[in-house]
Amino acid sequence: MLSLLQTSVFRSSSAHQASTTSPHPTGGASSSGTADLSFPWSRQRLPKYIVPLHYHLQLHPNLTALSVTGSVRIQIEVKSDTNWVVLHSKGLQISNATLLDHKLAHLSDQVLPVLHHPGHEQVAVFCPRVLSSGQKYFLQLQFGAELTEVFNGFYKSSYKTGSGETRVLASTHFEPTSARKAFPCFDEPSFKANYTISIRRSPEHIALSNMPIEKTVRLKVDLMEDHFATSVKMSTYLVAFVVCDFRSVSATTSSGVQVSIYAAPEKIEQTHYALEVAIKTLDFYEKYFNIYYPLPKQDLIAIPDFESGAMENWGLITYRETSLLYDPLTSSATDKLWVTIVIAHELAHQWFGNLVTMVWWNDLWLNEGFARYMEYIAVEAMYPELRVEEYLLNTYFAAVARDSLNSSRPISSPAENPTQIEEMFDIVSYDKGACVLHMLRHFLTDEVFQSGIVRYLHKFSYSNAHNQDLWDSLANTCSGDDFTSGKFCYSGSQAAKNAYLFAGEHMNLTAMMNTWTLQKGVPLVTVSRKGSRLLLRQERFLKAVLPSNPVWATLQHGYLWHIPLTFKTSTSSTVHRHLMVTKTDSVHVEEEVRWVKVNTDMAGYYLVHYEDGGWDQLTHLLRENHTALSYQDRTHLIHNAFQLIVTGKLSIGEALDLISYLPLETHTVPLLEGLGFLEAYYKMLEKRTDHDLTLKLRTHILRFFRGVIDQQTWSDQGSVSERHLRSEVLSLACDLGHAPCLQVANQSFEDWLRSKGTLSLPTDLTETIYSVGAQDDQGWEALLHTYTVSHSETHKRKILSAMGSSRDTSKLNRLLELALKGEVIRHQDLSTLVYMVARNPQGQRLAWDFVKKNWGMLVQKFQLGSFCIRSLIVSTTAQFSSPEELADMQSFFKSIEEQASQLRATQIALDNVEKNVMWMQRNLGALRDWLNTHTQ
Ligand code: BES
Ligand code: ZN
């Protein structure tokens, strides 16, 4: 029986305030039951008057019965007198609660009452004797649980051996709020504690956890117990354990850390690349952060059922197979880059996230924004040939796409319940976070940025930080102690390298960075010329709302950014800098400059619009001498121009004129950027019924990019960048029905079929070749068969994409059914499959109907705020562009209102479609006119 003391504390902003008030000691409650006790705590966040110090956790997972029994003894420190210990637990059967004093003597000779508050995923243990402030105690609980069929908590995974036998394993994924599903705990990032874990298993299995095994005891003939070394102080969400029958390869870093890669036995050959990358990356970070990795070992393990890409558990990083395994025979250049990036991301978390953790989930970007940004710093330094910097631009584009809709949010946003916390793992925390850091690094210089973050990491090691702590560490202020130790504080001469300080401008880093992290949106800087002055004006860039709309003024009100502006002109090769802190401003330029390009190399997080013929001058420059600008600048101009179309500041004709130089372009990134916009228009038109216009655009694209298409060879040769270009260009050419492309692809597919799948195709083109082959029945069936027997997940992904491109709706339905069943197509791949079907013009409707029809099951399998659920909503509707489709979405969201209202993703999807509808209404005619005059 429980009685919930639900007050309205939660929801109000007071929920954010730390509370150290404890409920009054309630003496005299009957210990015979919980009947006259009511749950003592009404907030989502735990009270702060009890702090966990050390967990002794013992687990016995049964991989046959799919259940777990366990016990936990938590050493706690009491900060204020109380009778209650409140902590998290979800779905656990708790028995035998006891409290012991610091000498391990029982405080009560009876089993203590445990009250449950399922809504808050909390339990409260009542102790008849007051727990006194300043004292330490032990809370001991026994519990039982199921090995869950979902992708978080302690969950079941399985794989098939070559001989068809199914093997079961158990693995964990706790971030952000699922540790409480595996054991009772204080499941908040600021409650850092040490963990001593032991796990029982059968002799044919191995057990892994964050720390190495200290000893193994044989309890019975068929029961072993592994005791792991005590961990460092860390948050609950980083605890991990796996019981499986995997094999591993190992090596040691230069500072002596043992690194191992684990995978299913038959995939062990695919682990070597990851081992090389992990060793190199750990060495790199130890130097870059000037802090040794503190654990003796680091394991990286490929889990066959994994919802996201990877998870940075300290010392035991779990990965989806495609994020860790590299198969030289079937992995493409992009697959290899992805593995490198994911390893770099998760290892960066060992410092940003694990060593120093955000105080609360509202500042998740301190984990994820940094890890995303460190991907680029690390991979660029270690594997320059992978040209990872070319992908950084995509981070900027993704962030702008999200941030230019009103449904965006500030980087730091309130998040209280598990759904809201889950939803923090989004483009804003990751990509905008990384963009803002990139801008800051350019602003401060590499040296100052690096020494600032090193200081931050040292100062907050094994503890938690707020945004302000980061700004303080980065700002040019040294405490006396720091300065004299000379260690982590940069000297005056280094600070002078800061171009802005050098220019004598006043800088208030906190004020500046607050404008990027505490307010949502992306600024648009409009530039015009007046003699020797460059006039500047900033506003919030909004894609789905026009200035003529009555809400425009409200949406602009109060928005102001401190923009570290940079620009180049026709008369100087140096970069000019200016910190713009007001709505309007101006800077000096020489009268004779012909063109000005603002936001050099796209290092700043802002868009630019050029008035007074500024765009014409740049269009002219690109046609005459495009290499006068860097490839980033060219890409930025293309991106900018196409963004402005939606707002009416630039016509579609002007944007298409700007990219008219592209036949001269040889760099992958601007080429793909220009191609990408035309492709996106094509994809949207293809799903409507205007066949004539669709055909015209198709002809235009093929004609316009003829040069680059014809240049491509059907091989894996060349640099990573060239290979990337080839794979994208040929995929589009075949998709658009370019006859020479289809011919080669068909021939290659036939050869592959005839070889019974033994022929190696160029890895970068496999997906394209399969997609062409999948258009006939026999080809499609052969691919499905290969999918079922393949042992390479990257290969399977390519096959899935090809099968999902079939124009036959019965085949698409078959795929959706297979994904729903979760056997041939695993549930972990469901959202990807649905996305693949949705982007197919024949599949868009099917995919959306599938989501609507199976919503209940989907939400049960993947949590409400999870990446999969959000992806299902956003990806199936991404290309809707009619008012009817918008209305259909609205009515579905209304029918699931209780869930929909908790999600940002529904509003993001609606905003996006509103933008598409507006685009169609405003630009379809103009596009038709332009094509009519240019494609005769
Ligand atoms: N900490 C996250 C894992 C995670 C994701 C936890 C979502 C909870 C919800 C991890 O570091 C991460 O960011 N993983 C990425 C892959 C990475 C390369 C961007 C992912 O899973 O998508
Ligand atoms: Zn991450």
Q: What does the model show?
A:
The chain starts with 49 loop residues before the first strand and ends with a helix. The chain is built from 33 helices and 28 strands. Strand 15 and strand 16 (258-263) form a beta hairpin. The chain has 936 residues and is an alpha+beta fold. Helices cover 41% and strands 20% of the residues. It is globular. Residues 1-22, 24-32 and 479-506 have low confidence and may be disordered. The strands form eight sheets. It has a seven-stranded mixed sheet with strand order 4-7-2-1-10-13-12, with no helix packed on it. The protein has a five-stranded mixed sheet with strand order 15-16-17-19-18. Bound molecules: ligand BES and zinc ion. Ligand BES is lined by residues 175-176, 308-312, 341-342, 345-346, 349, 368, 371, 425, 867. Ligand BES binds at residues 175-176, 308-312, 341-342, 345-346, 349, 368, 371, 425, 867.
Task: Describe the structure concisely.
By secondary structure, the chain is an alpha+beta fold. Helix 3 (333-349) packs across helix 4 (365-382) and helix 24 packs antiparallel against helix 25 (793-803).
